[in-house]
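Thread title: Can someone regenerate the structure for this chain?

I was given the following input by a collaborator and told the matching structure tokens would be attached. They weren't. Posting the sequence so someone can regenerate them.
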Amino acid sequence: MQKSLTRSFTAIVAVVTLSTGLAACGTPAKKTTAKPVAKATIKLVVNKKALSTKKVTIAKKETILAAMKKHYQVKVTKGFITAINGHAQDPATNTYWMYKVNGKMATKGANQLTLKKGDQVTWTLAPTK
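Best answer:
Regenerated them for you:
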């Protein structure tokens, strides 16, 4: 009787172990990387001259700053973009990068606003008053 119980217990443990091991071999975990979902347009203007206009692919909940880092060479200082593709701000002449989204001046930082399908972002390097 003792041997029968031991064999039954061993068989149960083996089945549970195999079942658990096979379950772990199932479908892999989903990647958490954001998938491209839409297009937006980013335009750079320096001295009233359009330097670049790019139609870019964006991911869901992607910030303007993240998109800028993906598609341009940007320098960020204290949370502000201070240079794009080698064109830098100049505090001595009050020249700063400012941006608009769909024609309206942004009211938040580029790291706080997310892009949406069809958004048009225009970055302008110009003196402020």
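DSSP finds two helices and eight strands in the chain.
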